[in-house]
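Reviewer 2 asked us to include a model.

Predict the structure of this chain.
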Amino acid sequence: MKTIEMKVETGNLNGNRKSKREVRISSGSLFSLSLLILSTNVAFAHCDTMDGPLIADAIKAMAQNNVNYALKWVPATNESEIRDAFSLVMKVKDLSSEAKELSEKYFFDILVRIHRAGEGVPFTGVKPTGTPIDEKVLAADKSIEIGNLTPLEGRISKEDMPELTKRFEKVMSLKNFDVNNVKAGREYIEAYVQFFKFC
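Predicted model (structure tokens):
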């Protein structure tokens, strides 16, 4: 196995003493690190991507001046934070193209951050349009869109199908809620997230 050697010069906090250290990295370690970094480019969820349903609802909320499209994605305890952010965005977004771009980015970031926190996962930023999304996630979305689990066939084990079917049926039973009934919207999103986590 090939080893890469580098000499690294470091200084202390006072800046008056420097030391030299040799760092050795095996090619196997470097390869493993590269795979880890590259593999993170595929999104295993899509709520934090510009192509995902959360951002689509945020855009709809701004276009229709109705924050309820976005509120369903966050816990009730964070509702006032989203309402305040939405109010600010709506006040400034039409001032200029720069104001629109900045205010939308602000709203997307805060909405995704709070949604992710509600799921117990860290916020790592909103991923750009075109970010690859795991095939199972895409198939799960397609299943909800067409109203059956056909797109997930062959992607889920037979043993898991009864539980998946149960979760899918719950999602479908809650899907057609009134956008202004935020509680019903949150119930739908909770079922939606549980369905995706199982996929």
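Confidence is low (pLDDT under 50) at residues 1-44. The helical segments are 27-39, 53-64, 68-71, 79-92, 97-119, 135-146, 161-174, 182-198. We have added this to the supplementary material.
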